[in-house]
Please model this.
Amino acid sequence: HEPGSITQPGVYEDVPAESYHADPVRGGSLSATGARRLLAPSCPALFHHERTNPPAPKRHFDLGTAAHQMVLGSGPEIVRINAPDYRTKAAQEQKKTAHAAGAVPLLDHEYEQVEAMAAALRAHPVAGALFAAGSGLAEQTLVWRDRATGVMCRARLDWLRHRVEGERLLVPDYKTANAVDLDSIQKSIHNYGYHQQAEWYLEGVRALGLGSLDAVFLLVFQMKEPPYLVTVVELGSVALQIAADRNREARETYAECSTSGRWPAFSDGIELVQLPAWVESNYLREITR
Model:
């Protein structure tokens, strides 16, 4: 599917990552990433600029992309470069050629690292079962229409598990991370808006009749360094309610901006700004001693 080629809600299996990110829905659609970009600390103006001027791919994500490919069995080709680093001209040319072809270049030690990560994940009792071969399909694109606003929405599931009669649908999503202790995971969920992604994906699953109200979104975090530990988490009800409120606000903002053609910045006037609350609190504490 090319950008703008999808006209109806549904589940689409053959949407390349590039087309998905460029928006394959005719007339435009909103993704979970876009929803987060519309709201503070961002704004509609930044969302609109990035949508019309897509940033270049960030190559430091190569390792995470390759890990996804190894775990899910779907994604861009991995090109193994038989070199310890990119100091030689030959290795640099191989890397450049791979990127130009849409592939992911990995040095020898990086390739071995990603292989070890995939093996560690498959050995994990929960994560291994969630992504077990034959249990589902990788990289499925969901497209649905939000009833309240009429906004077309989209999501790209890492893994859509086959439905089993009598069992609730589990929707796993794979993340690589520097640390997978619960404190670090909490911070990552908040900083990257993973709670909004969770609620957004569950909304798509329910809208398309793929799962019932008790469908569960699971985040599978894995360390990028040995011993490649894995932690699987489910988001609590308060986190999902916060996400639902923010996602609803994002859809309403998108609908309003799309209708008006106006994508506002942070402010059109003059704002009164104070110092951070902790600075003022420290000051007041000092002067009242």
In short: The chain is about 45% helix and 20% strand. The beta strands are 10-12, 78-81, 104-107, 136-145, 152-161, 170-177, 216-223, 230-234.
